Amino acid sequence: MKYPAARNNALVPGFVLVLLALFAASLVLVPQQARAFEPEAKVAYHADFADPRRFSAMLTSINNMVTHYEREFIEADVRIVFMSHGIRFIADDDLEGTPFEADEELLEERERLQSRLRTLANTYGVQLELCDITRGDIGLPEEDLMDGVDIELVPSGVVRLTELQNDEGFAYLKIE
Fold first, then answer.
1. pTM over the 0.85 mark
2. CA 170, 162, 160, 52: dihedral to nearest 10 degrees?
3. 81 has which bridge partners?
4. Which of 18, 48, 87, 138 has a CA positioned 20 to 30 A from the CA of residue 174?
5. Residue 47 above 70 pLDDT?
6. HEC string of 107-150?
Protein backbone atom coordinates (compact mmCIF):
# COMPACT_ATOMS: atom_id res chain seq x y z
CA MET A 1 0.00 0.00 0.00
CA LYS A 2 1.29 3.41 -0.92
CA TYR A 3 0.85 6.38 1.33
CA PRO A 4 0.30 9.82 0.03
CA ALA A 5 3.45 11.98 -0.11
CA ALA A 6 2.00 14.45 2.38
CA ARG A 7 1.81 11.75 5.05
CA ASN A 8 5.49 10.74 4.56
CA ASN A 9 6.56 14.36 4.84
CA ALA A 10 4.63 14.72 8.08
CA LEU A 11 6.84 12.06 9.70
CA VAL A 12 10.10 13.87 8.92
CA PRO A 13 9.83 16.65 11.57
CA GLY A 14 9.02 14.09 14.29
CA PHE A 15 11.92 11.89 13.22
CA VAL A 16 14.28 14.89 13.27
CA LEU A 17 13.09 15.80 16.78
CA VAL A 18 13.79 12.26 18.00
CA LEU A 19 17.29 12.36 16.50
CA LEU A 20 17.99 15.76 18.11
CA ALA A 21 16.78 14.45 21.49
CA LEU A 22 19.07 11.41 21.22
CA PHE A 23 22.00 13.62 20.26
CA ALA A 24 21.37 15.95 23.23
CA ALA A 25 21.12 12.98 25.59
CA SER A 26 24.42 11.63 24.30
CA LEU A 27 26.12 14.94 25.07
CA VAL A 28 24.92 14.74 28.66
CA LEU A 29 25.90 11.09 29.08
CA VAL A 30 29.36 11.19 27.49
CA PRO A 31 31.04 12.96 30.43
CA GLN A 32 29.50 10.35 32.76
CA GLN A 33 30.87 7.54 30.60
CA ALA A 34 34.27 9.20 30.33
CA ARG A 35 34.50 9.41 34.12
CA ALA A 36 33.80 5.69 34.34
CA PHE A 37 37.23 5.05 32.80
CA GLU A 38 39.08 7.26 35.29
CA PRO A 39 40.77 5.65 38.29
CA GLU A 40 38.48 5.29 41.29
CA ALA A 41 41.22 6.41 43.68
CA LYS A 42 43.52 9.35 42.98
CA VAL A 43 46.04 10.24 45.67
CA ALA A 44 48.94 12.70 45.73
CA TYR A 45 51.63 12.39 48.39
CA HIS A 46 53.73 15.44 49.30
CA ALA A 47 57.43 14.68 49.94
CA ASP A 48 59.29 17.79 51.08
CA PHE A 49 61.01 16.47 54.21
CA ALA A 50 64.53 15.14 54.94
CA ASP A 51 63.89 12.34 57.46
CA PRO A 52 64.54 8.84 56.02
CA ARG A 53 62.29 7.23 58.67
CA ARG A 54 59.44 9.49 57.64
CA PHE A 55 60.08 8.66 53.97
CA SER A 56 60.06 4.95 54.86
CA ALA A 57 56.71 5.45 56.62
CA MET A 58 55.37 7.16 53.49
CA LEU A 59 56.51 4.25 51.31
CA THR A 60 54.83 1.81 53.70
CA SER A 61 51.61 3.84 53.53
CA ILE A 62 51.69 3.88 49.73
CA ASN A 63 52.44 0.15 49.58
CA ASN A 64 49.51 -0.61 51.89
CA MET A 65 47.23 1.57 49.77
CA VAL A 66 48.17 0.19 46.36
CA THR A 67 48.09 -3.44 47.50
CA HIS A 68 44.64 -2.88 49.04
CA TYR A 69 43.34 -1.35 45.82
CA GLU A 70 44.86 -4.17 43.79
CA ARG A 71 43.18 -6.82 45.98
CA GLU A 72 39.85 -5.02 45.60
CA PHE A 73 40.29 -4.58 41.82
CA ILE A 74 40.18 -0.80 42.18
CA GLU A 75 42.10 1.30 39.68
CA ALA A 76 44.34 3.82 41.43
CA ASP A 77 46.49 6.74 40.32
CA VAL A 78 49.08 7.47 43.01
CA ARG A 79 51.62 10.28 42.66
CA ILE A 80 54.50 11.42 44.83
CA VAL A 81 55.43 15.06 44.33
CA PHE A 82 58.99 15.70 45.53
CA MET A 83 60.26 19.17 46.38
CA SER A 84 62.69 20.82 48.74
CA HIS A 85 64.36 18.20 51.00
CA GLY A 86 62.39 15.43 49.30
CA ILE A 87 64.88 15.59 46.42
CA ARG A 88 67.32 13.71 48.68
CA PHE A 89 65.38 10.48 48.15
CA ILE A 90 65.45 10.48 44.36
CA ALA A 91 68.95 11.84 43.78
CA ASP A 92 71.89 9.48 43.34
CA ASP A 93 74.13 12.44 44.11
CA ASP A 94 74.94 13.26 47.77
CA LEU A 95 73.99 16.91 47.09
CA GLU A 96 77.10 18.07 48.91
CA GLY A 97 77.21 21.80 49.53
CA THR A 98 73.43 22.20 49.18
CA PRO A 99 70.78 22.58 51.88
CA PHE A 100 69.71 19.02 51.00
CA GLU A 101 73.07 17.30 51.56
CA ALA A 102 72.83 13.60 52.40
CA ASP A 103 73.52 12.87 56.06
CA GLU A 104 74.82 9.60 57.52
CA GLU A 105 71.33 8.18 58.11
CA LEU A 106 70.30 8.79 54.50
CA LEU A 107 73.54 7.34 53.15
CA GLU A 108 72.90 4.15 55.15
CA GLU A 109 69.26 3.86 54.03
CA ARG A 110 69.19 5.37 50.53
CA GLU A 111 69.72 2.14 48.57
CA ARG A 112 66.97 0.33 50.47
CA LEU A 113 64.55 3.28 50.23
CA GLN A 114 65.20 3.71 46.52
CA SER A 115 64.68 0.00 45.96
CA ARG A 116 61.28 0.21 47.64
CA LEU A 117 60.43 3.32 45.63
CA ARG A 118 61.43 1.58 42.36
CA THR A 119 59.16 -1.35 43.25
CA LEU A 120 56.20 0.96 43.86
CA ALA A 121 56.83 2.81 40.60
CA ASN A 122 57.54 -0.21 38.40
CA THR A 123 55.10 -2.71 39.92
CA TYR A 124 52.16 -0.51 40.88
CA GLY A 125 52.58 2.47 38.57
CA VAL A 126 53.18 5.03 41.31
CA GLN A 127 54.24 8.17 39.45
CA LEU A 128 57.13 10.32 40.64
CA GLU A 129 57.12 14.06 40.00
CA LEU A 130 59.95 16.41 40.95
CA CYS A 131 59.79 20.17 41.40
CA ASP A 132 62.11 21.60 38.75
CA ILE A 133 62.60 24.74 40.85
CA THR A 134 64.26 22.63 43.56
CA ARG A 135 66.39 20.72 41.05
CA GLY A 136 67.38 23.86 39.18
CA ASP A 137 68.20 25.88 42.31
CA ILE A 138 70.89 23.38 43.33
CA GLY A 139 72.08 22.74 39.77
CA LEU A 140 71.42 19.00 39.87
CA PRO A 141 71.64 17.51 36.37
CA GLU A 142 68.73 15.24 35.40
CA GLU A 143 71.17 12.37 34.90
CA ASP A 144 71.97 12.48 38.64
CA LEU A 145 68.42 11.43 39.52
CA MET A 146 67.91 7.80 40.53
CA ASP A 147 67.99 5.20 37.78
CA GLY A 148 65.34 2.65 36.95
CA VAL A 149 62.26 4.87 37.24
CA ASP A 150 60.64 7.64 35.29
CA ILE A 151 60.73 10.95 37.12
CA GLU A 152 58.65 13.71 35.60
CA LEU A 153 59.96 17.21 36.12
CA VAL A 154 57.17 19.66 36.93
CA PRO A 155 57.71 23.42 36.85
CA SER A 156 56.67 23.89 40.50
CA GLY A 157 55.91 21.23 43.10
CA VAL A 158 53.40 23.28 45.05
CA VAL A 159 51.61 24.35 41.87
CA ARG A 160 51.51 20.71 40.77
CA LEU A 161 49.95 19.62 44.08
CA THR A 162 47.36 22.38 43.71
CA GLU A 163 46.54 21.26 40.16
CA LEU A 164 46.22 17.64 41.22
CA GLN A 165 43.82 18.57 44.02
CA ASN A 166 41.76 21.31 42.40
CA ASP A 167 41.73 20.34 38.74
CA GLU A 168 42.13 16.57 38.77
CA GLY A 169 40.35 15.54 41.98
CA PHE A 170 43.29 13.98 43.83
CA ALA A 171 43.26 13.47 47.59
CA TYR A 172 46.27 15.07 49.30
CA LEU A 173 48.34 13.12 51.83
CA LYS A 174 51.41 14.14 53.76
CA ILE A 175 53.03 11.78 56.22
CA GLU A 176 53.97 13.46 59.48
1. no
2. -80
3. 46, 129
4. 138
5. yes
6. HHHHHHHHHHHHHHHHHHCCEEEEEHHHHHHCCCCHHHECCCCC
